[in-house]
């Protein structure tokens, strides 16, 4: 990964969560330089929002470490196909499941499909999210507020509820929160609120599952170059994305996925209720 500052060409996508193949430059999400060591050999993982961005890098990283991976995606079929191909190239099996995680029935059916295919489940990554820029709290409609919470919070709850009875001793749940849960973001009020809720959920769920030895942790990325960025911000805002970080640049999905690999593996056996912060150098308490 380069440490040099980089600006992005102005660009905007009109749909959430966005298509990676339409971005310029393409995000680094294929874990090309990652050196695996069999940390997840024989494990079964489910990743929501795994078709692109951070989710794609997680899926491919898990596969490189030996896990079979099922991932959920909304409607980005071409991105999902690319992710499947890279999982298989890593030597494991892939299962792409299309649908909306705000639907509890879809979450239940997705977990059932993965368990039916492989007979087990060891790692759940709640990663899918959406965000919508609004300048004022009065600009946030009831439908937008409910939609953001439906995806980011209710989807996390529903998928966790569906998976929990299939997880056992030594297994892991990893949630994606955000730097904005700690710093706030004036134009992402509802999104930031959901990400703060995910921190609280992570800590509470970790405490409730300690006796079962199921670890629950989270990752709070900073500014990362993913499809959600051009799908959320204006073309001019995208151009300077990430420049305010201490490193002066946005991160890449490949720089975030190793945090999930660590938390999913036995290397993190003494960690639960914690949050990792791959954010380019911003100091965060908690």
What is the total domain count?
1
**What composes the largest sheet?**
7 strands, parallel
Number of helices: 9
The low-pLDDT segments are none
What percent of residues adopt helix (DSSP H or I)? Answer: 25-40%
- Spatial sequence of strands, sheet with the most strands: 3-2-1-4-5-6-7
CATH superfamily: NAD(P)-binding Rossmann-like Domain
Beta-strand fraction estimate: 5-15%
Radius of gyration: 17 Å
What does this structure look like?
The protein has 286 residues and is α/β, with parallel strands linked by helices. The protein has one domain (38-276): 3-Layer(aba) Sandwich (Rossmann fold). It contains nine helices and seven strands, in the order βαβαβαβαβααβαααβ. The protein has helices spanning 53-64, 77-89, 104-118, 142-163, 180-183, 189-209, 228-232, 235-239, 253-264; strands at 44-48, 68-73, 94-98, 123-126, 172-176, 215-219, 275-276. Helix 2 (77-89) links the parallel strand 2 (68-73) and strand 3 (94-98). Helix 1 (53-64) crosses helix 9 (253-264) and helix 3 runs parallel beside helix 4. The radius of gyration is 17 Å and the shape is globular. The chain starts with 43 loop residues before the first strand and ends in a 10-residue tail after the last strand. The model has no long low-confidence stretch (mean pLDDT 94). Keywords: Oxidoreductase.
Task: Reconstruct the topology from this structure.
Elements: E1 44-48, H1 53-64, E2 68-73, H2 77-89, E3 94-98, H3 104-118, E4 123-126, H4 142-163, E5 172-176, H5 180-183, H6 189-209, E6 215-219, H7 228-232, H8 235-239, H9 253-264, E7 275-276
Parallel strand pairs: 1-2, 1-4, 2-3, 4-5, 5-6, 6-7
